[in-house]
Amino acid sequence: MTASIKDVARAAGVSPATVSRALGKGPVSEALRAQVMEAVRVTGYRPNLAARRLRSQESGTIGLILADIGNPFFTGVARAVEAAAYEAGLRVLLCNTDEDPEREASYLALMQEERVTGLILAPTRATADRLAEAPPAMPVVLIDRPGPAGLFDSVLLDNAAASAALVDHLVAQGYRRIAGLFGQTSGTGVERAEGYRATMARHGLAPSWRFVPPQAEAAEAGFAALSREGQPEAVLASNSLLLMGTLQAVRAKGLRIPADLALAGFDNEPWTGLVEPGVTVIEQPLAEIGRQAMALLFERLRAPDAPVRKVMLSGRAILRGSTAPRRVLASML
Amino acid sequence: MTASIKDVARAAGVSPATVSRALGKGPVSEALRAQVMEAVRVTGYRPNLAARRLRSQESGTIGLILADIGNPFFTGVARAVEAAAYEAGLRVLLCNTDEDPEREASYLALMQEERVTGLILAPTRATADRLAEAPPAMPVVLIDRPGPAGLFDSVLLDNAAASAALVDHLVAQGYRRIAGLFGQTSGTGVERAEGYRATMARHGLAPSWRFVPPQAEAAEAGFAALSREGQPEAVLASNSLLLMGTLQAVRAKGLRIPADLALAGFDNEPWTGLVEPGVTVIEQPLAEIGRQAMALLFERLRAPDAPVRKVMLSGRAILRGSTAPRRVLASML
DNA sequence: CTGAAAGCGCTTACAG
DNA sequence: CTGAAAGCGCTTACAG
C-alpha cells in the first residue's frame, strides 16, 4: 500500500521519531533532515491525517455548516471563511443542509465525530432552538441567523435596519400598499419580517405578509396569495431566491415593474443588475461576515470563558429602477 | 474530555470490543446491545472518526475537487454527488480550487493524506496534464473537463456537438459574423472552441475568437478586443460567467440584443431567462453528471482493472430571444 | 456471543 | 540532536 513513516525511516536510515520531527517542527540536524526529505521523495510518502489527528488530538479542521450551497450568499461567506482558515493553517469541512433540520442534526453529530476545532453555523430556526439544550462540544459561531440569546458568538446583519431602509425607501418613492415575503426556516426571515412590520406601523401603513419556504417556487405561490388579498403596489422579498421567484411570477402575470409593481429585496446578485429594470436590493458584506466569524472563533479558542460577542454588520441599499418613484396616473404605454 | 469507547464499556459493564460490535455490525446479544446503547446515551459518547479510520483503513469519504464553488454548474453537480454519496453511506470532502493549479495540487495532496476512497475532479488544463505523470493513489473520475486520454474514467458533455448546435442555430437565424469567447483554464473551453471553429468552417464562415480567464471581467475585456477586430453580429460564450460578462459589456455599450448583437452561451441559469430578451443557452444535465460520476466511481472500486470508461452526455439547447432571426434592415426603434 | 490482545500510523514525553 | 517506548481510540482476528 502507501508508504508509512516507518518506510521513510528505513529508507533514510533514521528512526520514525526523527522522520516525524523532520516533517514537523521538532529539532533535527540539517543533515538528517535532508536525508529524510530525500527518503520522502523516493517513497512517495504522504502523512496519514487520521493517525496524526488521533495522536495529536487536534483535527486542524473548522466545520462550516450552511443552509444552502446554491445560494450565492453562502458561497460568498464560505470563500471568506476558507481563505481565513487557510491562512491559519486550518482546513474547512463544508456541509450543506438544504434547510433541513434533520441534516443539520446529522452534520452536527459528524462535526463532533470529526472532533473539529471549531464550528461556524447558519442554523434553521428549529436547530437554533435545540442548540441551547444540546450545545456542541467545541466553540460555535453563528452566522447570518440568530440563535438562543447570549449563548453563542455570532455575526449577523442588522436585519431590522435593513428592512426598515427598504420600507422607508419605498414609502419615500410613493408606495403605500407594500407587501412582504419572508423565509420561514430562518431567524433571519423573522427578523426581516419584524423590521418590515415595525416600519410599516411607523408609517401608519397596514402590513401584508407571508412566511414561505425559501425557494423560488414558494415565492410564486406566496405572491399569488398576497395578490388575492388585494394587488400590492410593491413587494419586499427577504432573500434572493424569494426575490427571483417573485420576479418570475410578475413576469408570468405580465405586470410591469415598477409601473404595476415595485420590487425590492436582499442580496446584490449579478442578475439583479442585469434584468430590466434593475432590482433594488440590500447588499450584504459577504467577505466581512466570513472574516468576522473566523476572528470570533479564534478569539474564543484563545479565551474560552470570555463574554459572548455579537457582531452586527450593516447592509448597503443599492437603489435601482425597480423602485422608481410611483406614477399615480396610469402609465402611458 | 469527550467520552471514549472505554468509558462506555465501563458504564455498560462490558468490554470495549462489545461496545464496538454493538455500535457496528458485529454479533451482540440484544440484552448487551441495549445496555451499550443506554451507556452511550448516559456518557454522550460519539465515536472518534480519526481512530475508526486509522484502524479500519477506510476513510468512508469521497473527495470532490471543483474549480469554482461560485459557479452554479459546479454546485449543481456537487448536490448530486453528495446525494449519491449519502445514499451509499459515504461522506464528501468538498474542495474549491478557484481554477488555481497550485491549489489543485495542494488539494490532491490533501486527498491522499485523507486516504479518501475515491476522487471526483474537474481539473484545469495544467493539472489535467500533470495527472498522467503523478496519478493519485485512489480511483479518479474526471467531470466536465477532459484529462489525459484513456487514463481516467470521465463524465463529459459533448462539447463539440453543443457548440455546433449553437453555431448552426445562429447561422440559421441569419447571423454570419459570429465571434466566440472561451475559457482558457479548462479543457472544456478548448473543446467548445474546437466545435465552434469546425462548425464555422463547415458553413464557410471566418471564425474570430479569444481564450480568456473564466471571469465576467475578463469577458468584458475579451468582448472589447473582439469588437476592435470588427463588430460581430453574434457572440458565443463558453460558460455562464463569460456570458454574464459579455452581457454586461453589451449593456455598457448600449447595444441592443439581438438587433445589434445576438448572444448565446452555456448553462441555463435562472438569470438567463429573466433578462430581456432571454439568452439562448445550452442546458447541461447537472444532476446526471453527478450521478454518473458516482456510478463510475463505484464500478471502478468494484472492478479496479476494468477498461476506462468515458460517459458523454448531451446538452439541450434552450432557444430564447437573444438569438431571434436577424433583421437585415436597420431595426426601427 | 464475548473478552483479551494486537495494531492501524502517527507524535511526544523520557532518556541519553 | 536522536532513539526507544508508550499511547491516541478504535476494530478485528483469535480464543473460548
Q: How do the helices and strands line up, and which of them pair or pack?
A:
Two copies of one chain form a homodimer.
Chain A: H1 5-12, H2 16-23, H3 30-43, H4 49-56, E1 61-66, H5 72-87, E2 91-96, H6 101-114, E3 118-121, H7 125-133, E4 140-143, E5 153-157, H8 159-172, E6 178-183, H9 187-202, E7 208-212, H10 216-228, E8 234-237, H11 240-252, E9 262-266, H12 270-274, E10 280-283, H13 286-302, E11 310-313, E12 316-318
Parallel strand pairs in A: 1-2, 1-3, 3-4, 4-5, 5-11, 6-7, 6-8, 8-9, 9-10
Antiparallel strand pairs in A: 10-12
Helix pairs in contact in A: 1-2, 1-3, 2-3, 5-13, 8-9, 10-11
Chain A binds a DNA duplex (16 and 16 nucleotides) through residues 4-6, 14-18, 20-21, 24, 26-29, 32, 47-57.
Task: Compose a concise summary of this entry.
2 copies of one chain form a homodimer. Chain A is elongated.
Describe the structure.
Chain A is of the alpha/beta class and 333 residues long. Chain A folds into three domains: 5-54, 434 Repressor (Amino-terminal Domain); 61-157 and 286-315, Response regulator (Rossmann fold), CATH 3.40.50.2300; 159-283 and 318-323, Response regulator (Rossmann fold, 3-Layer(aba) Sandwich). Chain A is built from 13 helices and twelve strands. In chain A, the strands form two sheets. In chain A, strands 2-1-3-4-5-11 form a six-stranded parallel sheet, with helices on both faces. A six-stranded mixed sheet of chain A has the order 7-6-8-9-10-12, sandwiched between helices. The first copy, chain A, starts with a helix and ends in a 15-residue tail after the last strand. At the A-B interface, helix 4, helix 5, strand 2, helix 6 and helix 11 of A face helix 4, helix 5, strand 2, helix 6 and helix 11 of B. Chain A binds a DNA duplex (16 and 16 nucleotides) through helix 2 and helix 4. Chains A, B: InterPro entries: HTH_LacI (IPR000843), LacI/GalR-like_sensor (IPR046335), Lambda_DNA-bd_dom_sf (IPR010982), Peripla_BP_I (IPR028082). Chains A, B: Keywords: DNA-binding, Transcription, Transcription regulation. Chains A, B: Residues 3-56 form the HTH lacI-type domain. Chains A, B: This is Transcriptional regulator, LacI family.
